[in-house]
Amino acid sequence: MLNDGETAIGAFGRAHALAADDPAAAFDYASALVRAGDSGQVRMGELLLRDLHQRQPNSLPVLEMLALSAVRNEDYPEAVAALQALLARLPEGDARREAIVRQLAQAQQQAQ
């Protein structure tokens, strides 16, 4: 029996195949790959996210997933860049800012 991660990857992969031009389907598939995939799947998810970021540079969810992917790959300079871009786009007073500042500090420390 498949675990939940494999099931999600399969389901979102089929949805993405049926609607390859749909950014939401691509994001859902990329998210499943980054969150639940093995290293090759995480890399594929990252490539999808990079493509989405080029098409939607101000998308907060895409930037969040790019940061998560970079942390999972221990690519801390990339995580720092994604978190800084995310922080720059969040409005003042956004509840997520504090958590992102903490994540950014951790990524900066790891990048040294």
Highest-level CATH class: Mainly Alpha
- Low-confidence parts: none
- Within CATH, the superfamily carries the name Tetratricopeptide repeat domain
> Whole-number radius of gyration?
14 Å
Beta strand %: under 5%
The secondary-structure element order is HHHHHH
The major beta sheet can be summarized as:
none
Structural class: mainly alpha
State the helical fraction. Answer: over 70%
Number of helices: 6
What is the CATH topology assignment?
Answer: Serine Threonine Protein Phosphatase 5, Tetratricopeptide repeat
What would you say the CATH architecture is? Answer: Alpha Horseshoe
- Count the E strands: 0
Total of domains: 1
- Per the principal axes of the C-alpha atoms, what is the gross shape? globular
Protein name: Cytochrome c-type biogenesis protein CcmI
InterPro entries: C-type_cytochrome_biogenesis (IPR051263), TPR-like_helical_dom_sf (IPR011990), TPR_CcmH_CycH (IPR056413)
Domain Cytochrome c-type biogenesis protein H TPR: 2-96
Keywords: Cytochrome c-type biogenesis, Repeat, TPR repeat
Question: Brief overview, please?
Answer:
Keywords: Cytochrome c-type biogenesis, Repeat, TPR repeat. The protein is mainly alpha-helical and 112 residues long. The protein has helices at residues 4-18, 23-36, 39-55, 60-72, 76-89, 97-111.
Give a structural overview.
By secondary structure, the protein is mainly α. The chain has a single domain (4-111), classed as Serine Threonine Protein Phosphatase 5, Tetratricopeptide repeat. Helices cover 79% and strands 0% of the residues. It contains six helices and no strands. It is globular. The protein starts with a helix and ends with a helix. This is Cytochrome c-type biogenesis protein CcmI. InterPro entries: C-type_cytochrome_biogenesis, TPR-like_helical_dom_sf, TPR_CcmH_CycH. Pfam families: TPR_CcmH_CycH (PF23914). Keywords: Cytochrome c-type biogenesis, Repeat, TPR repeat.
